Amino acid sequence: MRVNKKEARLLEEAVDQWQKDELLDRTKADELKKSISSYRNEFDSVAFYATIAAVSCALLAFGALVLDEKWIERLRKLFAFSEIFIGFLFGAVAVLLTWIAKRRKRKYAYASLANESFTVLVALTLGISVAYFTRSFQPTYYYYGIGIFIAAALYGFLAVYLQSKILWTCMLLALISSWATQTYAWSTPPSHSYFLGMNYPLRMVLLGILMIFLSPLTQQHPSTTRYFNLSWYAGWIFLLLSALFLSVSGNLSYDVWSAIKQGKLFMWAITYTLVLSGILVYAIKQKDETLRDIAIVFFLLNIYTRYFEYFWDHTNKGLFFALLALSFWLIGKKAEQLRKRLSE
Predict the structure, then answer these.
(1) Contact of 115 with 53, CB cutoff 8 Å
(2) What interhelical angle do 165-186 and 112-137 show, nearest 10?
(3) Distance separating alpha carbons of residues 141 and 181, to the nearest angstrom
């Protein structure tokens, strides 16, 4: 059954209510939900792309004004404002924008895309505020990671308060940035290549594993349940991307890595391929289609990476891509056959 998004939501709510009233068992309710598919009408498409354009322009404007022109610094020096004053100023603006965003959520509940895009302003002003507070208390980079971690905590709180997936995404990105920045500050000088014996890719792999294991915690509270999928799949994407870099570099510093032949890191590539295979099998068994697709995408990236690592200078380019096209065609054909068997 194909209906628009509003009708699909109403039907799903009706099925949930029937299940609560014990008119349907869970198996039948799941079957009914799976039979409901929604489509995006023309107005939804216009609203979606307009929102993407608005968010993109806001980010470009922020970059042009703050990063290029540095108008905040110019105003601060012109009026002799301290960095902590700028932090308080933008903090106050962030509080005001949060109040406006909450009010919009209540007054214009139907305008979900517009409300969500408005939270970008909250994220930007809060980020500026925390940055200036951090600079005012610590002029060096040694504790910048802790400042970013505080920003991540504030993004998480506001994401729950405003029910905003954009702010939750900002929280995840801030956590990654915090870990990267702080472990760099605490790593061994002068090259800062290792932290507790781990280079950058290995540190990021460790964080990715932690993100995956912690993401189910979002399901333990009603206010964060809606963020489980975002946290779960973001963790997998970050883990597999970090592991891909690790499979290329190994646990080596850049100076050592650039001085050896790539063939010496072949076991890292094999290990990454085996891990991908295990994740793909796990996703298929769990019937997690999104994770399955993510694993397949990284399989393709893995193949391209290995080719550029080992065979780019030694094989015919046309022959390689012809074999690659044939292998993908066979994979697609087998996938269609498997999907047909499962649907029968």
Answers:
(1) no
(2) 20
(3) 8
Q: What is the pLDDT of residues 242-277, one digit of tens each?
A: 998 888 888 877 777 667 776 677 788 888 889 998
DSSP string, 295-331: HHHHHHHHHHHHIIIIITTTS-HHHHHHHHHHHHHHH
Q: What residue segments make up the domains of the chain, in order of their start? A: 1-39, 41-186, 196-313
d(CA 181, CA 276): 28
pLDDT, one tens digit per residue, over 22-43 is 666 667 666 766 666 554 544 4
**pTM confidence score:** 0.72
Burial of 19 (0-12, 13-18, 19+ CB in 10 A): middle
Question: Taken in order 145, 148, 154, 157, is the CA torsion positive or negative?
Answer: negative
Contact 263, 310 (CB under 8 A): yes
What's phi and psi for 265, nearest 5 deg?
-105, 20
**Helices 200-214/165-186 angle, 10° precision:** 140
CA dist 48 and 3 (Å) reads: 18
Kindly state the tokens that stand for 11.
Answer: 């039907």
- Token pair listed for 184: 């760099």
Task: Give the C-alpha separation, 178 to 158, whole Å.
Answer: 18
Q: The tokens of 324 are what? A: 């690659």
